[in-house]
Amino acid sequence: MREIDYVTMQDGMRVAYICYRPRSDRHPTVFLYSPYEASATRFEIAKPFLDAGYAFVGANFPATGCSEGVLETWFDRKEGIYGAEVVEWIANQPWSNGDVGMIGNSSAASVQMWVAAEQPPHLRAIVGAGMFDAYEWIYQGGMLQVYCLKWAFTSQFVDQASGVSDRIKAGDTECSAIRGSDRQLVKRSFYDEIRKHPLNDEWWDSIYLAREEVAGKIQVPTMLIGAWQDRYAVRESARVMTQLMPNVEHKRLVLIDGDHSGTGALGFQAPRLVNDERMKFLDRWVKGINNGAEEEPAVTVYWEAWEPDGDPKKQVAGWVTHHKAWPEPTVERRRYYLTVDARILPDKPGASLYDGQRAYLYPTGAELYGTNEQFSAKPYQQGVLNYRTDVAVSDMTLLGSPQVTLYLSIDDGDDTDLELTLKDVGPDGNVLFLQSGQLRASLRAIDEQRTSSDEIVHLFRKREKLEPGCIYDIRMSISPIGHVVRKGHCLELTVGAPNPIIKQSIGSFPIGSASINRVYHSEKYPSSIVLPVVPGAKAEAPAPERGIQRAKPCRKETEFEPGGLPTG
Q1: What residue spans carry the region label Disordered (predicted)?
Q2: Less CB within 10 Å around the terminal CB: N or C of the chain?
Q3: Is the dihedral of CA 297, 136, 160, 499 positive or negative?
Q4: Where are the alpha helices (DSSP H) in 372-511?
């Protein structure tokens, strides 16, 4: 049966919810909590959980949808307080057996951190996919992502309206009076706030999840699901699990190829492998079934996952590996050097023909990696620098975050933006996008406390402008990746500029002036890339057809183009 109603919080405000449940008996409950359409969740979203023996509750954050509440701005602790109260309300209903687990993607994943930090007694487990967080999500690499600006606007003014409309159509007679009243108020819109805070200041600290006051207080079993091409979310999921959950005994990290919206989807759009992992975890820790989940290693990696016929329910992977920890302890971080003749070599440059500099015209070259159609438009070659490894004589398995050091100068202006892309090039000329990384050069200062062997983390607290002609040491990480560069293939690194055209939620306006940017390659200025290599690991299945995997577009190239401007 379906129930649409409100639950009253301790401060007198009411949270809108929808509940689907069997007509008899008491059941464990799955709880979806978000700012979008959760309190008007469609039956097809709830059905798989009902079929698995759960009741289902969807509720909106305070001051979103039809929920009452007064917030300073989104991602306020009050979202966690209200969510914890809803958990306890669920546990005390006559149709509930008292066991509650949370699910959700994106915002509905991040808020689980806030709820679990309140430690409601009847919360048994949380499962979050595509979890993002604060500054580094909106300002990736210190650059405001225009897609995130669009998200903030539509989330507040469009997506909520859709959920409200559906709820009213379903019979809610109170929502119209709540909307726009003094019982539903966000004092400062998130859309406006993010533009007021271009640096990672105290305001961002106040809504940051990856800290002891939030993630560090979680105690319930936790599963985090990250898609490799959901760049920031996969970085944050790995960071939170490995560094900030000391009190969580049973924690899992699931990593897989995919994008932000698809990997964490619910209902009929839920990808099979992800859904199976989610259900098994819920069954163990919410339903209490002894299915062996607690015996599984902490990290599961699905390699080369894809969806035959575009059907998420048919999702398959080439193979799967399990790991005791993240980063994988056996990973060797191998440094390769970028050379003046556009190669990536294991030998450090000396006084040889590999010394020198390469130049490109900034900001004219950008890789568009959102779709196969976008990716087919190669970047303007004089606006990028391309580097390639030699052809691999055996499989090279990458698992972790590549790190890049560039010795860089500009000839005009006081800043520049870097966007790096990593690609796999096959012997047939097929170029497959793997991963990217972004950094504004003036925000290059490193957070030494949070930086680890696997990841370079930046402070983003203060701008340090560049002076034309000076050479700067720029260190940055490319987001984590799991990929096998097969025998006969090459790995290609491209140095270029960002572009406001949105590709997989990435898109920003390049800063600074038109400039001739130079990258240096010498014994004194050894530009390099560190690759996280699993020694001895090889591909365990044939590669899927290129261009059919989520968020991994492909194009054909007849020959290698080094790119850049002549410097002779």
Answers
A1: 539-568
A2: C
A3: negative
A4: 372-375
Scanning 256-403, the segments in alpha helix (DSSP H) are: 260-263, 272-285, 372-375
Cβ-contact 251, 223 below 8 angstroms:
yes
Determine the length of the chain.
568
Residue 381 is given by DSSP the state G
Tokens 């994008």 belong to residue: 259
Taking only the tens place, the pLDDT of each residue in 91-101 is 999 999 999 99
Domains and CATH numbers, the chain: 2-323 (3.40.50.1820), 332-556 (2.60.120.260)
Q: How crowded is residue 342: how many other Cβ atoms within 10 Å of its Cβ?
A: 19
Burial category of 503 from C-beta neighbours within 10 Å (exposed 0-12, middle 13-18, buried 19 and up)? buried
The partner residues of 101 in beta bridges, in order of sequence, read 30, 125
CB contact at 8 A, 92 and 7:
no
The tens digit of pLDDT for each residue in 470-484 reads 999 999 999 999 999
pLDDT range class, residue 568, cuts 50, 70, 90: low
What is the maximal distance between C-alpha atoms in the chain?
81
Classified as helix, coil or strand, 352 is coil
Q: How far apart are CA 126 and CA 180, in angstroms?
A: 32
Q: How far apart are CA 283 and CA 300, in angstroms?
A: 18
- Residue 96 CA to residue 89 CA, distance in Å, equals 10
Of 339, 76, 329, 294, give the one whose Cα is nearest residue 185: 76
Give the angle 355-360-365 at the CA atoms, nearest 5°.
140
SS3 184: strand
Extract the tokens encoding 203. Answer: 């305001």
pLDDT higher than 60, residue 353? no
DSSP 8-state class, residue 486: -
